[in-house]
Amino acid sequence: MRNVSKVLVVVATVMGALTLGGCVSGEQRSSEPPGDTVSFPPPSAPEEAPPEESSEPPANSGVNTAVECTAEDITVTGAADQHPEITLPDNCSAPTKLIVADLAPGTGPEAVEGAAMQANYALTAWSSGEEIETSYPPSGQGPLPIDTVGSGLIEAWNQGLVGMRQGGRRLIVAPPELAYAGSGNELENETLVFVVDAVQVTPA
């Protein structure tokens, strides 16, 4: 009986140890985090993405930078050879390519490359929509003499004046790369909007 009792005591001791060990293991497992916080971020994390889209204009700005303005979006009023009024749109972005459009065709001699001409012009800055220079009286000094059409001027004019006829009016929109980019001029980063009147054309 004593041997049986010893066996029972040993068995009881071993079982108790196993039970205690299981409890300890269970307690250790229960102290681990319930999931991988890297693989399963909290639901609020994706909602932080929208504020990073700072390049988008405010919802009420009315400007869609994905759409560039065209000649048809720019309003020019006033008769040819008179000071024009230029109104720029607010629902599209500045053009990145040269725009040349006849507003009045003209009927006189054509300003081919190498011809000479005299031209009145009004210049508006795209960023402000304000006129910054004009040759029209009384503010300006009168027609600008151009010795050689097609060269010697900003590239937008070198290209944009060719083909004008005396008495005609033309819209020229010059992105910075075809105007004063890299020159150090205060307008080097500006998109420029010109309305030009061909006052006189002298064939080459």
Overall mean pLDDT stands at 79
Proportion of strand residues: 15-25%
Please state the CA-atom Rg, rounded to the nearest Å. 39 Å
Major beta sheet, specifics?
6 strands, antiparallel
Uncertain segments? 1-46, 54-62
Structural class: alpha+beta
CATH class of the domain at 71-202: Alpha Beta
Gross CATH architecture of the domain at 71-202: Roll
By DSSP, the count of extended strands is 8
Percent helix range: 10-25%
CATH fold naming of the domain at 71-202: Chitinase A, domain 3
H/E element order? HEEEEEEHEE
| N- to C-terminal distance | 135 Å
Task: Based on Cα principal axes, name the global outline.
Answer: globular
Determine the number of helices (DSSP H or I, runs of at least 4 residues).
Answer: 2
What does this entry look like structurally?
This protein is α+β, with helices and mostly antiparallel strands. It is 17% helix and 23% strand. It has a domain at 71-202: Chitinase A, domain 3, CATH 3.10.50. The strands form two sheets. Strands 3, 4, 5, 6, 7 and 8 form a six-stranded antiparallel beta sheet that branches. Strands 1-2 form a two-stranded antiparallel sheet. The protein starts with a helix and ends with a strand.
Describe the structure concisely.
With 204 residues, the protein is an alpha+beta fold. It has two helices and eight strands.
Write the layout of secondary structure elements.
Blueprint: H1 2-30, E1 75-77, E2 85-87, E3 99-104, E4 116-125, E5 131-134, E6 144-146, H2 155-160, E7 169-174, E8 192-202
Antiparallel strand pairs: 1-2, 3-7, 4-5, 4-6, 4-8, 7-8
